[in-house]
Amino acid sequence: MKTIIFVRHGESVSNAGGITMAHDAIPLSPHGRMQAATLSAVLSVSPSRTLVSPMVRTGQTAEPFCARWGIQPEQCSALAEFSVIDPVLIDGLSGEERKPFVTAYWNAQDPKLRQGPMADTFREFNERVSEFIRLMPDLPDRTVVFGHGIWFGLLHWRLLGYGADSASDMARFRRFQQGLPMPNCATFLLKNNEGVHWCITADEAINKAIAAIPRI
Description:
This protein has helices at 30-42, 56-69, 95-108, 122-135, 149-159, 167-179, 204-211, and strands spanning 2-8, 49-52, 74-75, 143-147, 187-193, 197-202. The N and C termini lie far apart (41 Å). By secondary structure, the chain is of the alpha/beta class. The protein is built from 7 helices and 6 strands, in the order E-H-E-H-E-H-H-E-H-H-E-E-H. It has a single domain (2-162, 171-211), classed as Phosphoglycerate mutase-like (Rossmann fold, 3-Layer(aba) Sandwich), CATH 3.40.50. Strands 3-2-4-1-5-6 form a 6-stranded mixed sheet, with helices on both faces. The radius of gyration is 17 Å and the shape is globular. GO terms for molecular function: phosphatase activity. This is Histidine phosphatase family protein. One of its GO terms (cellular component) is cytoplasm. InterPro entries: His_Pase_superF_clade-1, His_PPase_superfam, PGM_Phosphatase.
């Protein structure tokens, strides 16, 4: 049995409703840093490898955990979160002001739609997740992955056997992803039985410890 541990990044300034920034430069909020510190204490697994996305907030979430174990995280481009809209097109907007743009994108249900040169198409995003799925058989037991919410939603969807190619696939995935409990620093265990199937379970003990952190 092989286990991969997936952790969504801590609360970012964007999650907290902050003004639009470049997708890869969004840092953790002060509360997100508290979440990362708590996670490092309660995630007791001794990692064989630790992977982060190219986005700052995953590296900052992994930092206390890696310091605890005296290791360096490895950056994996396949873990990059879905960049729905070019930040230039929503420059200066708050989280609440960005919501109509995101809603309009998903309502269009077009896997080839690109909202600005610095945005992804859904098709490109799906290919990144496919790339990671191809890597999974070669990852060692106790690999810890620090990633993103929509990204993990699509990984979960794909491992269930569903497609993500057509407009209807995209719409069905969005409904699934929005219903998947994925708070910041949510932790999941992906267990593989002899290379055939992946079983995903939430680590409720860790998730409850993160949820209990008071806001200051």
